[in-house]
Amino acid sequence: MAVASPAGRLRGPMRGIVAVLVTGILLPSPALAEPKPTVKQLKKELAGLQKESDKLIADYYNSRITHQKAEKVEKSARAKLAAAQETFDRHSVELRAMAVAQYTGGEPNQFAMLTGNRQDPSVLLARMALTQHVIALQDAKLRGFAQVRDAQQQAKDEAAARAKELDQTVGELEERKGKAEKQIERIKDKIDQLYTAPGLRPDGTFVPQLPQGADHITPRMALVKQLVQERFEVPYGIGCYRQIQDGGEHPLGRACDFMLSRGGAMPSAAELKRGDQIAAWVVKNAKRLGIMYVIYRQRIWHVRTGAWRTMSDRGGNTANHYDHPHVSVY
User: Fold this and answer.
1) Integer CA distances (angstroms), 295 to 209, 231, 246, 318, 320, in order
2) Angle of helix 219-232 relative to helix 121-193, nearest 10 degrees?
3) What is the pLDDT of residues 44-87, one digit of tens each?
């Protein structure tokens, strides 16, 4: 007869309690979230990234020098080819003229001095001597043309080789530039992580703040403004505090407009791209910096939803936020 286990002999609620305890002991607990890196750790990572960045920048610099040298050599090769082509063309014309004259029965202007009885021995000797002279001239012309032809072909080959080298240096230059730019972006991202908006509670919410300073914005908004300015530059100015009648964050010192053009004009393609980059960066760092919402290109992104949605047409580039990203903080 099988003997019941101690757990099997327990009745009612006690059996459920034991099962919970056993399960808690045997099953692994959920993995704890990795702690956020400290400022010290971030600075250490930054130092390593900076060292790698310096090497990539040095490689890029050396590649630029190589590219510049290749450009000079390729330019010289093209000049030599142009000169060789000009000589080749001139000799080709002369050679064709000589061939035509030979085909039609005589060299041009070679026998104009021969007059009188062609059977006179002295005349025949003179003609023979002149013929030998013409043959020698033809041979020299042909040899000269062969040299010119060979020189032109050599110049062509050299120019093609130099052009190929130049293309190769362009590719290497772009590759090194791309690596350096990516590394710089990693450094910027690490630097961003060194900053956390003031007033952050342990539960992820933010303590309300009063405006301060000459621009009448909160410390949280001031930090976001500073970081955007440092990372992207805003050539057409930043407008923050202003009194408006329909509410919003501007009168509270919790909003800034990062202008991409003046006078309500549609920004250039480059400035629109800058606006996209600013908006993307703000969204990426929203929870850490206390961002509440972003408006740009007639769309709004709110931290609660984490998604963009289209807004109604308010009329005009400024009202629809085509000429500036609007950023509001808690």
Assistant:
1) 22, 19, 16, 11, 9
2) 170
3) 777 888 788 788 888 787 888 888 888 888 888 888 888 888 88
Q: What is the average pLDDT across 29-33?
A: 45
**Predicted structure pTM score:** 0.55
Using CA atoms, how far residue 201 sits from 39, 220, 327, in Å, is 18, 13, 21
Here the tokens at position 257 are 């407009």
For the chain, the domains span: 39-110+118-193, 219-329
What architecture is domain 39-110+118-193? Orthogonal Bundle (1.10)
Q: How many residues does the chain have?
A: 330
Measure the CA dihedral 34/39/41/46, to 10°: 120
In contact, 183 and 315? CB cutoff 8 Å: no
User: What is the secondary structure of 3-52 as a DSSP string?
Assistant: PPPHHHH--HHHHHHHHHHHHHHHSPPPPPPPPPPPHHHHHHHHHHHHHH
Contact 275, 267 (CB under 8 A): yes
Q: Count the alpha carbons within 13 Å of 271 in the hemisphere toward its beta carbon.
A: 18
